[in-house]
Amino acid sequence: MLKIKIFNLLICFVGSVALVIILFLISSYKTNHFGFIRILPSHLIDGVNSKDLKHNSWYLSGIHNHELFLANSLVIKKVLKIDTNLVDTVGLTVTGLEKSRLFQGSIFTTDNEVIWIMDGLKPSILKGGLPHLRFEKFFKTSFFTGSIPLTENSIALRYINEKGVSVLAKEFLNTNVLKTTDLLEKQIDGIFCTDGEIVKVQGSSKMIYVYYYRNQFLCTDSNLNLLYKGKTIDTISRAQIKVAKIASTGETTMAAPPLHVNKRACANEKYLFVQSSLRANNETEYMIKDVSMIDVYAVADGKYQFSFYLPDFRGFKVRDFKVYGQSLYALYDHYLYKYQLNF
Amino acid sequence: MLKVNQGFRIKLVDFISALFVLLFIYAAMSKFHDFEKFRIELGKSPILNVISNYVAIFIPSSEIGISILLFSKRYQFLGLYASFSLMVIFSGYIVIILKFSTYIPCSCGGILQNMTWNQHLIFNIVFIVLSIISILIYPNKNLICSKREYLHPE
Predict the structure, then answer these.
(1) Between chains, do A5 and B136 touch, taking CB under 8 Å as contact?
(2) In which element (H, E) is residue B65 found?
(3) DSSP code of A273?
(4) Which residues of A touch B135 (CB under 8 A)?
(5) How does pLDDT run across B49-93, given as a tens digit for each residue?
């Protein structure tokens, strides 16, 4: 009798252990291969400090020497310099804009003391030096719809070619040579369906293009040679947008609210951070009501790592964020908030 | 086997069963009390997230089911095996979480959530040992009876 009991206990034990192991294997398989499950470790980020910027037109332009630079989308001349502890702010004015007559454009501050203004509508590119924020070099280009600095003398741009399709290209500013690529894959119309964000990888010459409407991103070297195609964790492999042409004006526009997949992205040396718009199976509406979901991928191979939430701040959603080293800076309306990364 | 007093054995088994019933009912109640939270926490679990919705129902239901088994004289023995298995499952889950998971979520309710995972593991092991003891000392006479009924329902 005792033997039978022990035997039964053993069977129960083995069965139970096997059940747990099978569950473990199934879920790690699903998480790694198909499903759309967000891995949510706790304590990945800690809030450090916040700063009231008074206006919501500031955006993050870059970092240099432990000083954060914010540019203003309304007044192109204004730049705000804040130390990385978010204590001291210095208001600065850029100079050298007179000749170009630029009134808008994106300002990029890069780690090699170069500061850029890029305006794809004008279209022109200005290059200057950091300490005095003086723009000295002026380049005329063709129209473009997105850009980032790649090296000291080249930029990556996205423009609409003669066939009416968006393409990524590298422009060598000194020689005015444009090297076009066929990186962007048309799914519907070639402009909206390939829309996305060009992301500079901090401290590297790599570039990443994150599609807004499909679960993909591309990583290239500084010559825009494809290194790999990455997949974001959701399952939207085809852009779900409707595009219509308005005959009377010749305009092409969205015909239905698009299904946004990736809202915005940025990268530090090791990780790509993608703000996703989609809810995972292991999340409820209630959970993600007051947060923004950030999914983290390895820059080296594009593999999904884990996710974390950026909670809303004083009722505002994140409108922009950048990661420099171990610090994440997020903008909430007119507030700047610094988080420390614990990974 | 053991020449321990039959009555004492029965009392001890009943006592251990009562402990299990207390534990399971308490655990199930605290899960159902804030079911939404329990379900969400399970969803974050690295092991269960894929099937968390089913597990969220299954765990507290089986806790109550086992409690009912333990209550009834006839199925008490079966209930003890089930308790043993459930505690092994919980412990296996904790071991996997501690050993193989990159992060450690929290999904227990009530006072149990104040325990660290290691304390939890020890707590579970104590209950596993209790269930083993109760199964081993379960009076064979009762067992044979119920077994005969089980084998020959008529």
Answers:
(1) yes
(2) helix B52-71
(3) E
(4) 5, 8-9
(5) 667 778 888 999 999 999 999 988 888 999 999 999 999 998 998
Q: Which long-range contacts (CB under 8 A, 24 or more apart) does A97-100 make?
A: A97/A126, A97/A135, A99/A138, A100/A124, A100/A126, A100/A135, A100/A138
Cis geometry, peptide bond prior to residue B60 (ω within 30 degrees of 0): no
Give me the numbers of helices (H) and strands (E) for chain B, helices first please.
6, 0
Token pair listed for A6: 């022990």
Q: Which element (helix H / strand E) includes B74?
A: none
pLDDT, tens only, B17-51: 999 999 999 989 888 887 777 776 776 676 776 67
Give the residue carrying structure tokens 């852009």. A239
Residues in chain B: 154
Contact yes or no for A37 and B50 at CB 8 A: yes
> Which of A11, A14, A16 is the best mutation test for B, with the most CBs of B within 10 A?
A16
Mean pLDDT of B99-106: 62
Regions of chain A where pLDDT drops below 50? 31-34
Please tell me the predicted confidence (pLDDT) of residue B152: 43
Q: Is the pTM of this model over 0.80?
A: no
pLDDT beyond 60 at B2: no
CA distance B91 to B89: 5
Residue B101: the pLDDT is 64
Closest chain B residue to the Cα of A284, Cα to Cα: B40
Residue B95's pLDDT is: 87
∠ CA B58-A38-A19, rounded to 5°: 35
Give the residue among A245, A234, A180, A227 at the shortest CA–CA distance from A212: A234
* CA–CA dist A304, A233 (Å, integer): 7
- Residues in chain A whose Cβ is within 8 Å of chain B: 1-2, 5-6, 8-9, 12-13, 15-17, 19-21, 23-24, 26-28, 30-31, 35, 37, 39-42, 281-284, 286-287, 306
Contact state of A27 with B135 under an 8 Å Cβ cutoff: no
pLDDT in tens, A55-106: 999 999 888 888 899 988 888 888 899 999 999 989 888 888 777 777 777 8
Tell me, what's the pLDDT at A239? 84
Please tell me which residue of chain A has the smallest CA distance to B80.
A9
Interface test with A, best of B2, B4, B36, B49 (most A CBs within 10 A): B49
The ipTM is 0.83
Q: How far apart are the C-alpha atoms of B140 and B126, rounded to whole Å? A: 24
Whether the CA torsion A72, A324, A264, A337 is positive or negative: it is negative
pLDDT band at residue B151, thresholds of 50, 70 and 90?
A: very low
| Subunit contact B50:A21, Cβ cutoff 8 A | no
Q: Compute the Cα dihedral for A177, A183, A186, A192 and give only its sign.
A: negative
